[in-house]
Amino acid sequence: MPDSVRRATYQDLLDVPHHHCAEILKGVLHTNPRPALPYRNAASVLAGELYLPFRRGLGGPGKWALLDEPELHLGPDIVVPDIAGFRREKMPRIAMKDAAIFNTPDWVCEVLSPATEAIDRSDKMDIYAREGVGHLWLLDPRTQTLEVYRNDAGLWARVGAWRGSATVQVEPFEAAEIELGVLWED
């Protein structure tokens, strides 16, 4: 960012209308309207698929805190992923008083939309890699695709991509099967 450009502040973020999602990425304020229903549905269903085995431990290893749209303060950036997961040893309790989380998540899922895909694939991927997020999933309801990445010393290594109604067992949640087809249903 050129020195002559003012860096966005937390107050700039707070001034954004509530029907928009606001983030500060590399010093720049980014705002988008809340996602359309197919994108929210995909995120909600995925979170539901992971909730019982990984948060509650029913049929899986448990020991994860899974949060929808948390406000992550990662270095100088304020990022709002669609879903973030923290191993419980990193976040034993979810604080009741603050909106902000200063811990780096172990896993992040971004649901790609026409309005967010470019930023999700560039600035946000860079920030997540820099801050040590272990795994990144990119979920695209338009193409019915899941892409999975692993952080390898600050660089993203692609684990794989699956489409349509495939059933996957993929890191860091390989202990459970996820039927992708349910993510695209109405």
From TrEMBL:
Origin superkingdom: Bacteria
Gene3D superfamilies: tt1808, chain A
InterPro entries: Nuclease_put_TT1808, Restrct_endonuc-II-like, Uma2
Membrane-traversing stretches: none
Coiled coil feature spans: none
Domain Putative restriction endonuclease span(s) in chain numbering: 20-178
Pfam families named among the record's database cross-references: Uma2
Descriptive protein name: Putative restriction endonuclease domain-containing protein
Protein species of origin: Chondromyces crocatus
Record lineage: Bacteria, Pseudomonadati, Myxococcota, Polyangia, Polyangiales
